[in-house]
Structures are given as C-alpha cells and as structure tokens.
Design brief:
mainly alpha, GPCR_2-like_7TM, G-protein coupled receptors family 2 profile 2 domain-containing protein, 2% strand, 12 helices, membrane, 304 residues, transmembrane helix
C-alpha cells in the first residue's frame, strides 16, 4: 500500500469515513434503544451497550483518517493513534466477556443477578487492559527521537519503525483472545443440543398422561428362568393370582414358568400411582426456573 497514488488515497479516505459513519450510527442506535426501552435491559444487551461507547470513540479516530499523517508529532496524530490502540482491541475483549458469560451460564448456573455483579470487572478489564500500552506508547521514543505513534498508511498508529510492537501489542493479543473464545463457543453449541432426557421431559410437559411418563422413564427387565421373575413382572403375577376375579384364575393356559414358580407377594412393592397433575406441575416448575438461564445462554450464543 506504500505505492498508492493520491487518487487511491482519496478513495481510501472516503471509504473509511463512510464505514465509520455507518458504524457510529449503529452504535448510537444501540445506545438510544437501550436507554429508552426496558425490554433491552438484559445482561447481554448491557455488554453491547458498554462496548458501543468504545466503538464510537474508535470511529472518531478512524474518521480522522489521514488528516494528521504528515504531522507525526502533533497532538492530533498522537491522539488518533492512542484512540485506535486503546479502543479497537477493547471490542474483542467485550466479545470475550460474552463468551465467558456463556460459560458461566451453562456450566456454573449463573443467573442474571450473578452476571450483573461481575460487569464492573468486565468494564475495568476491557477498557483498562488496552489502556496500559496505549497510554505508555505516548511517552516512548527511540534514540533518534522517533515516537512509537506515527504514520501508518491509513491513519496515525504505531509507526513502521516500531512494527514489532504492532504484532506484540495488537495482533498477537487479539488472535489469542479469538482462539480462547473458539472452544467456549463450540462447546456451548454442542451442549445446547437437547438430550434424550430433555426430550422426554418436554414430551411429558406437552402430554400430561402419567402412563406415558412411566413407560418412558422406567422399563422393567426380565430374565428367563429366574427365580425372582414373578417379582419383576408385577402385572402378570397380579393377573395370574387374583382370586377375587374368576376370569383371572389359573386355567391351565398360563406359561409353565409361572405355574412352576409361585408368586411371592411379600417381595413385590406396589408402584405408587403418579398423579395426573403432579408430573406436569413439576416439569413446569423446572422449566420456569431454567427459562431465564437458558434464554440468556442462547442470547450469548447468537452474539458470541
């Protein structure tokens, strides 16, 4: 890009300012809607709200573009470089904060009030960590008196004489944060796939028939020839030994295994009847308790 013509530089400046203006409008709309509507007053939206201020300040720096690039020691060039070095990496850290909230919500069962308590820590880290090198670079010069901040083609930033600092103070930390977010996001997406137990629970909520719930959650096991077979098959034993009903008495048509092994009534404990309303009520209570947590986790997933 060092060999660009003046016309190409002019086109680059126009594109930078157009894109920065669009970004600034989007950030302003985010801040406005958050302040005017309580509907957006959620943890995920608050993190975006906090990040929008840093994005607006970054857009101010990029809209300056090449205005001070020929005056590297001027206050305008140094201020522009400070803004880009400090607030541009902060956006990546805010995305990491969203990924951390996903982790805390899914695996440590954090609720909205728990996440709100750690938001001041996010504010300090996301804006404080980039502030340290950004502010320090304002006062560092080499032996020739060349400042760290200076011309960087598109705007004032870390000058070409200090290119190693671009990698050490910007690109390497940014890519490290991105790589840290990746396994959290992938693991969260795979964990959000409903399991068999969750599917059965949702079926029980939609269908209040307790017989289906009992059929899905417990299946009796049978062992051919076992001495305790009559104890593990309560329904068949009840039919074969219920003398109060003549139609259920043994008439020679039952299996030989049942006739050879008399029923042991003392070893069979009747299964308690499940109330038609108890199971759906329990599942509705669990669903209400976990709704906010799962909704927050899904919101973070879509954005992180």
């Amino acid at each position: 890009m060092a060999g660009l013509t003046e016309a190409q530089y002019s086109a680059l400046i126009i594109l930078e300012r157009i894109c920065s203006s669009i970004s600034m409008l989007g950030c302003s709309f985010t801040i406005l809607t958050f302040c005017c509507s309580r509907y957006f007053s959620k943890s995920i939206n608050r993190l975006i709200f906090y990040a929008s201020f840093g994005n607006i300040i970054t857009n101010i720096g990029t809209m300056i573009s090449r205005s001070y690039i020929d005056q590297p020691n001027s206050a305008g060039c140094q201020a522009q470089a400070f803004i880009i070095q400090t607030f541009l990496p902060a956006d990546v850290l805010w995305t990491l904060s969203m990924a951390i909230n996903v982790y805390l919500t899914f695996y440590h069962k954090f609720e909205a009030r728990d996440l709100r308590r750690i938001e001041p820590i996010y504010l300090i880290c996301c804006y404080g960590i980039p502030l340290v090198p950004g502010f320090t670079f304002l006062f560092v010069k080499d032996r020739g008196g060349i400042r760290i901040y200076g011309p960087a083609i598109s705007w004032c930033w870390i000058s070409s004489e200090w290119e190693i600092l671009r990698l050490a103070a910007f690109y390497a930390p940014t890519w490290y944060v991105i790589l840290e977010m990746h396994p959290i996001s992938v693991d969260e997406v795979t964990s959000s796939i409903p399991s068999t137990d969750a599917t059965l629970a949702m079926e029980a909520i939609s269908d209040p028939d307790p017989s289906k719930l009992a059929h899905n959650t417990s299946q009796p096991s049978y062992t051919a020839g076992s001495s305790s077979e009559t104890a593990t098959r309560p329904h068949s034993v009840h039919i074969a030994t219920d003398h109060s009903n003549p139609s259920n008495q043994y008439d020679g048509t039952q299996s030989a295994d049942y006739s050879a092994s008399p029923p042991h009534r003392s070893s069979y404990t009747p299964r308690p009847n499940i109330s038609h309303s108890a199971a759906p009520r329990a599942f509705r209570s669990i669903r209400r308790r976990n709704y906010e947590r799962n909704n927050a986790a899904w919101s973070y997933t879509k954005r992180a």
